[in-house]
Design goal:
- This protein has helices spanning 18-30, 49-53, 70-76, 101-109, 128-132, 151-161, 163-166, 182-199, 203-220, 224-241, and strands at residues 9-13, 36-39, 66-68, 78-82, 115-119, 136-138, 277-279, 285-287.
- The protein has 303 residues and is α/β, with parallel strands linked by helices.
- The protein has a six-stranded parallel sheet with strand order 3-2-1-5-4-6, with helices on both faces. Strands 7-8 form a two-stranded antiparallel sheet.
- Helix 1 (18-30) runs parallel beside helix 6 and helix 8 packs parallel to helix 10.
- The longest helix has 18 residues, at 182-199.
Protein backbone atom coordinates (compact mmCIF):
# COMPACT_ATOMS: atom_id res chain seq x y z
CA UNK A 1 0.00 0.00 0.00
CA UNK A 2 1.41 3.37 -1.04
CA UNK A 3 1.99 5.83 1.83
CA UNK A 4 -0.44 8.69 2.25
CA UNK A 5 0.82 12.04 0.97
CA UNK A 6 -1.90 14.25 2.45
CA UNK A 7 -3.06 14.62 6.03
CA UNK A 8 -6.68 15.57 6.65
CA UNK A 9 -7.56 19.21 7.22
CA UNK A 10 -9.73 20.12 10.20
CA UNK A 11 -12.81 22.29 9.71
CA UNK A 12 -14.83 23.84 12.54
CA UNK A 13 -18.19 25.30 11.53
CA UNK A 14 -19.29 28.40 13.43
CA UNK A 15 -17.47 27.74 16.70
CA UNK A 16 -19.08 29.70 19.50
CA UNK A 17 -16.18 30.08 21.94
CA UNK A 18 -12.54 30.90 21.18
CA UNK A 19 -11.44 28.44 23.87
CA UNK A 20 -12.73 25.47 21.91
CA UNK A 21 -10.86 26.61 18.83
CA UNK A 22 -7.67 26.72 20.89
CA UNK A 23 -8.37 23.29 22.36
CA UNK A 24 -8.84 21.78 18.91
CA UNK A 25 -5.65 23.45 17.68
CA UNK A 26 -3.73 21.94 20.57
CA UNK A 27 -5.16 18.46 19.92
CA UNK A 28 -4.21 18.82 16.26
CA UNK A 29 -0.60 19.51 17.19
CA UNK A 30 -0.62 16.57 19.62
CA UNK A 31 -1.49 14.21 16.79
CA UNK A 32 0.41 15.63 13.85
CA UNK A 33 -2.29 17.70 12.13
CA UNK A 34 -1.46 21.23 11.02
CA UNK A 35 -4.17 22.58 8.69
CA UNK A 36 -7.08 24.27 10.51
CA UNK A 37 -9.99 25.85 8.63
CA UNK A 38 -12.70 27.92 10.35
CA UNK A 39 -16.19 28.76 9.09
CA UNK A 40 -17.44 32.05 10.59
CA UNK A 41 -15.27 31.88 13.72
CA UNK A 42 -15.40 34.32 16.64
CA UNK A 43 -12.63 36.85 17.16
CA UNK A 44 -9.42 35.06 18.06
CA UNK A 45 -7.48 37.55 20.14
CA UNK A 46 -3.83 36.65 20.70
CA UNK A 47 -4.30 37.53 24.37
CA UNK A 48 -7.58 35.64 24.67
CA UNK A 49 -8.89 32.13 25.33
CA UNK A 50 -8.02 30.60 21.98
CA UNK A 51 -4.31 31.26 22.30
CA UNK A 52 -4.40 30.50 26.01
CA UNK A 53 -5.86 27.04 25.41
CA UNK A 54 -3.77 26.24 22.36
CA UNK A 55 -0.51 25.45 24.15
CA UNK A 56 2.35 25.23 21.66
CA UNK A 57 -0.19 25.25 18.83
CA UNK A 58 -0.37 29.02 19.34
CA UNK A 59 2.98 29.15 17.55
CA UNK A 60 1.82 27.59 14.26
CA UNK A 61 -1.53 25.78 13.97
CA UNK A 62 -3.67 28.57 15.39
CA UNK A 63 -2.05 31.64 13.73
CA UNK A 64 -2.00 29.77 10.40
CA UNK A 65 -5.71 28.89 10.55
CA UNK A 66 -7.69 30.00 7.50
CA UNK A 67 -11.25 31.28 7.40
CA UNK A 68 -13.29 29.53 4.70
CA UNK A 69 -16.90 29.03 3.66
CA UNK A 70 -18.84 25.83 4.11
CA UNK A 71 -19.46 25.75 0.34
CA UNK A 72 -15.71 25.82 -0.33
CA UNK A 73 -15.13 22.90 2.02
CA UNK A 74 -17.79 20.82 0.29
CA UNK A 75 -16.43 21.66 -3.16
CA UNK A 76 -12.73 21.09 -2.43
CA UNK A 77 -12.56 18.06 -0.15
CA UNK A 78 -13.75 14.57 0.54
CA UNK A 79 -15.72 15.43 3.68
CA UNK A 80 -16.40 13.52 6.89
CA UNK A 81 -18.92 15.17 9.19
CA UNK A 82 -19.10 14.40 12.89
CA UNK A 83 -22.26 13.92 14.94
CA UNK A 84 -23.29 12.43 18.26
CA UNK A 85 -26.78 11.55 17.02
CA UNK A 86 -27.25 8.98 14.26
CA UNK A 87 -30.20 7.46 12.46
CA UNK A 88 -31.22 3.93 13.38
CA UNK A 89 -31.14 2.40 9.91
CA UNK A 90 -31.04 3.11 6.17
CA UNK A 91 -34.62 4.41 6.01
CA UNK A 92 -33.05 7.83 6.64
CA UNK A 93 -29.66 8.59 5.16
CA UNK A 94 -28.84 11.95 6.72
CA UNK A 95 -27.02 10.36 9.67
CA UNK A 96 -26.77 6.80 8.38
CA UNK A 97 -24.68 4.85 7.60
CA UNK A 98 -21.99 6.13 9.94
CA UNK A 99 -18.45 5.12 10.85
CA UNK A 100 -16.68 5.09 14.18
CA UNK A 101 -13.32 6.88 14.41
CA UNK A 102 -11.53 3.54 14.10
CA UNK A 103 -13.48 2.73 10.93
CA UNK A 104 -12.65 6.16 9.52
CA UNK A 105 -8.97 5.39 10.06
CA UNK A 106 -9.29 2.04 8.30
CA UNK A 107 -11.05 3.71 5.37
CA UNK A 108 -8.48 6.47 4.99
CA UNK A 109 -5.59 4.00 5.18
CA UNK A 110 -6.54 2.66 1.76
CA UNK A 111 -7.20 5.93 -0.05
CA UNK A 112 -5.02 8.99 -0.63
CA UNK A 113 -7.25 12.00 -1.10
CA UNK A 114 -7.79 15.49 0.25
CA UNK A 115 -10.01 14.90 3.25
CA UNK A 116 -11.71 17.34 5.60
CA UNK A 117 -12.82 16.38 9.12
CA UNK A 118 -15.80 18.64 9.77
CA UNK A 119 -16.95 19.56 13.28
CA UNK A 120 -20.10 21.53 14.12
CA UNK A 121 -21.15 24.05 16.71
CA UNK A 122 -20.75 23.42 20.43
CA UNK A 123 -24.48 23.58 21.17
CA UNK A 124 -26.14 22.00 18.14
CA UNK A 125 -23.41 20.45 16.02
CA UNK A 126 -23.90 20.18 12.27
CA UNK A 127 -27.52 20.50 11.17
CA UNK A 128 -29.25 18.04 8.86
CA UNK A 129 -28.86 20.23 5.78
CA UNK A 130 -25.10 20.48 6.33
CA UNK A 131 -24.75 16.75 6.95
CA UNK A 132 -26.63 15.96 3.72
CA UNK A 133 -23.97 17.83 1.78
CA UNK A 134 -21.08 15.90 3.31
CA UNK A 135 -19.72 12.60 2.00
CA UNK A 136 -19.52 10.53 5.18
CA UNK A 137 -20.66 10.63 8.78
CA UNK A 138 -18.56 9.76 11.83
CA UNK A 139 -19.91 9.15 15.34
CA UNK A 140 -18.06 8.31 18.55
CA UNK A 141 -19.58 5.43 20.54
CA UNK A 142 -20.56 6.69 23.99
CA UNK A 143 -23.12 6.14 26.73
CA UNK A 144 -26.68 6.00 25.42
CA UNK A 145 -27.71 8.09 28.43
CA UNK A 146 -25.41 10.96 27.45
CA UNK A 147 -23.60 10.50 24.11
CA UNK A 148 -22.89 14.18 23.39
CA UNK A 149 -19.23 15.07 23.91
CA UNK A 150 -17.65 18.45 24.32
CA UNK A 151 -16.38 19.74 20.96
CA UNK A 152 -12.74 19.62 22.04
CA UNK A 153 -13.13 16.11 23.47
CA UNK A 154 -14.72 14.78 20.30
CA UNK A 155 -11.97 16.26 18.16
CA UNK A 156 -9.25 14.83 20.37
CA UNK A 157 -10.73 11.32 20.22
CA UNK A 158 -10.97 11.39 16.43
CA UNK A 159 -7.43 12.76 16.04
CA UNK A 160 -6.12 10.07 18.38
CA UNK A 161 -7.68 7.31 16.32
CA UNK A 162 -6.12 8.76 13.17
CA UNK A 163 -2.64 9.10 14.71
CA UNK A 164 -1.23 6.13 12.78
CA UNK A 165 -1.89 8.13 9.61
CA UNK A 166 -0.55 11.46 10.87
CA UNK A 167 2.21 10.74 13.41
CA UNK A 168 5.40 9.05 12.29
CA UNK A 169 6.92 8.68 15.74
CA UNK A 170 5.50 9.10 19.23
CA UNK A 171 7.25 9.96 22.49
CA UNK A 172 6.84 6.39 23.73
CA UNK A 173 9.93 4.17 23.75
CA UNK A 174 10.15 1.06 21.62
CA UNK A 175 8.09 -1.54 23.46
CA UNK A 176 9.50 -4.49 21.55
CA UNK A 177 11.61 -6.67 23.81
CA UNK A 178 13.49 -9.91 23.60
CA UNK A 179 12.32 -12.95 25.51
CA UNK A 180 14.91 -14.44 27.84
CA UNK A 181 16.95 -17.32 26.46
CA UNK A 182 15.26 -20.70 26.85
CA UNK A 183 18.28 -22.02 28.74
CA UNK A 184 17.79 -19.29 31.37
CA UNK A 185 14.06 -20.05 31.60
CA UNK A 186 14.78 -23.77 32.01
CA UNK A 187 17.22 -22.90 34.78
CA UNK A 188 14.44 -21.00 36.54
CA UNK A 189 12.18 -24.06 36.24
CA UNK A 190 14.89 -26.18 37.93
CA UNK A 191 15.13 -23.85 40.92
CA UNK A 192 11.36 -23.58 41.16
CA UNK A 193 11.01 -27.37 41.10
CA UNK A 194 13.54 -27.75 43.90
CA UNK A 195 11.62 -25.18 45.94
CA UNK A 196 8.29 -26.83 45.25
CA UNK A 197 9.57 -30.22 46.32
CA UNK A 198 10.45 -28.65 49.68
CA UNK A 199 6.87 -27.55 50.32
CA UNK A 200 4.72 -30.07 48.49
CA UNK A 201 5.17 -33.81 49.00
CA UNK A 202 2.63 -35.14 46.52
CA UNK A 203 4.03 -35.69 43.07
CA UNK A 204 0.69 -35.36 41.28
CA UNK A 205 0.23 -31.93 42.87
CA UNK A 206 3.72 -30.85 41.88
CA UNK A 207 3.07 -31.96 38.33
CA UNK A 208 -0.06 -29.82 38.09
CA UNK A 209 1.78 -26.78 39.41
CA UNK A 210 4.76 -27.49 37.16
CA UNK A 211 2.54 -27.28 34.09
CA UNK A 212 0.72 -24.21 35.43
CA UNK A 213 4.02 -22.38 35.97
CA UNK A 214 5.21 -23.28 32.46
CA UNK A 215 1.98 -21.89 30.97
CA UNK A 216 2.32 -18.71 33.05
CA UNK A 217 5.92 -18.08 32.01
CA UNK A 218 5.05 -18.99 28.43
CA UNK A 219 2.41 -16.25 28.26
CA UNK A 220 4.54 -13.67 30.07
CA UNK A 221 7.57 -13.78 27.73
CA UNK A 222 9.91 -12.62 30.52
CA UNK A 223 12.97 -10.57 29.71
CA UNK A 224 16.47 -11.69 30.69
CA UNK A 225 16.44 -9.41 33.71
CA UNK A 226 13.02 -10.60 34.87
CA UNK A 227 13.89 -14.30 34.67
CA UNK A 228 17.27 -13.70 36.33
CA UNK A 229 15.52 -11.94 39.24
CA UNK A 230 12.97 -14.74 39.66
CA UNK A 231 15.71 -17.37 39.51
CA UNK A 232 17.68 -15.50 42.17
CA UNK A 233 14.66 -15.40 44.49
CA UNK A 234 14.11 -19.16 44.32
CA UNK A 235 17.84 -19.93 44.51
CA UNK A 236 18.09 -17.95 47.76
CA UNK A 237 14.93 -19.57 49.10
CA UNK A 238 16.35 -23.02 48.38
CA UNK A 239 19.54 -22.09 50.21
CA UNK A 240 17.52 -21.09 53.27
CA UNK A 241 15.42 -24.25 53.14
CA UNK A 242 18.51 -26.43 52.83
CA UNK A 243 17.84 -30.15 52.47
CA UNK A 244 14.36 -30.00 53.92
CA UNK A 245 12.05 -31.84 51.56
CA UNK A 246 8.65 -33.40 51.57
CA UNK A 247 9.44 -35.17 48.35
CA UNK A 248 9.53 -38.61 49.95
CA UNK A 249 6.01 -38.30 51.38
CA UNK A 250 4.38 -39.34 48.14
CA UNK A 251 2.20 -41.92 49.82
CA UNK A 252 -0.10 -39.23 51.24
CA UNK A 253 -2.35 -38.72 48.24
CA UNK A 254 -5.52 -37.89 50.14
CA UNK A 255 -6.71 -34.52 48.93
CA UNK A 256 -9.01 -34.29 51.91
CA UNK A 257 -6.04 -33.75 54.20
CA UNK A 258 -5.69 -30.16 53.02
CA UNK A 259 -8.08 -27.32 53.56
CA UNK A 260 -6.72 -25.55 50.46
CA UNK A 261 -4.26 -27.19 48.04
CA UNK A 262 -1.59 -25.18 46.27
CA UNK A 263 -3.40 -25.52 42.94
CA UNK A 264 -6.51 -23.90 44.36
CA UNK A 265 -8.64 -26.99 45.03
CA UNK A 266 -10.73 -26.64 48.19
CA UNK A 267 -11.23 -29.77 50.25
CA UNK A 268 -13.60 -30.62 53.05
CA UNK A 269 -12.54 -30.83 56.66
CA UNK A 270 -12.61 -34.44 57.69
CA UNK A 271 -13.87 -35.29 61.13
CA UNK A 272 -11.13 -36.81 63.26
CA UNK A 273 -11.48 -40.54 63.93
CA UNK A 274 -10.06 -40.03 67.41
CA UNK A 275 -12.93 -37.82 68.62
CA UNK A 276 -14.78 -39.82 71.30
CA UNK A 277 -18.57 -40.10 71.06
CA UNK A 278 -21.27 -41.49 73.23
CA UNK A 279 -24.86 -42.09 72.45
CA UNK A 280 -27.58 -39.93 73.92
CA UNK A 281 -30.98 -41.07 75.06
CA UNK A 282 -32.27 -40.89 71.50
CA UNK A 283 -29.41 -42.97 70.16
CA UNK A 284 -27.73 -40.03 68.44
CA UNK A 285 -23.98 -39.61 68.95
CA UNK A 286 -23.03 -36.95 71.46
CA UNK A 287 -19.55 -35.46 71.61
CA UNK A 288 -18.17 -35.13 75.09
CA UNK A 289 -16.70 -31.85 76.27
CA UNK A 290 -13.03 -31.82 77.33
CA UNK A 291 -12.29 -31.19 80.98
CA UNK A 292 -10.27 -28.28 82.31
CA UNK A 293 -7.04 -30.16 81.56
CA UNK A 294 -7.90 -30.47 77.90
CA UNK A 295 -8.83 -34.17 78.13
CA UNK A 296 -12.12 -35.70 77.19
CA UNK A 297 -14.21 -36.77 80.13
CA UNK A 298 -14.19 -40.34 78.77
CA UNK A 299 -10.42 -40.54 79.23
CA UNK A 300 -9.17 -41.97 82.50
CA UNK A 301 -6.30 -40.61 84.50
CA UNK A 302 -3.03 -42.42 84.04
CA UNK A 303 -2.01 -44.74 86.80
Amino acid sequence: MAPRTQDPVVVVVEPETPGNVGTIARAMKNFGLTDLRLVEPPELDEDGEAYGFAGHAREDVLPNAEEVTFDAVVDDYHTIGTTAITNEDSRQHTRFPFKTPAEVRESLESVDTETALVFGREGTGLDNEELRRLDEVCSIPASAEYPVLNLGQAATILFYELRTLTVEETQLPDVERERAAEADIDRFYDFFERFHKSVEGREHKREKTRVMMRRLIGRAHPTEREITTLTGIFRRTNELLGDRSFGDHTGDDTDGADTADIDGEDTAHAESEDTPHVEGDDGAPVEREPDSRGRNAAESDPD
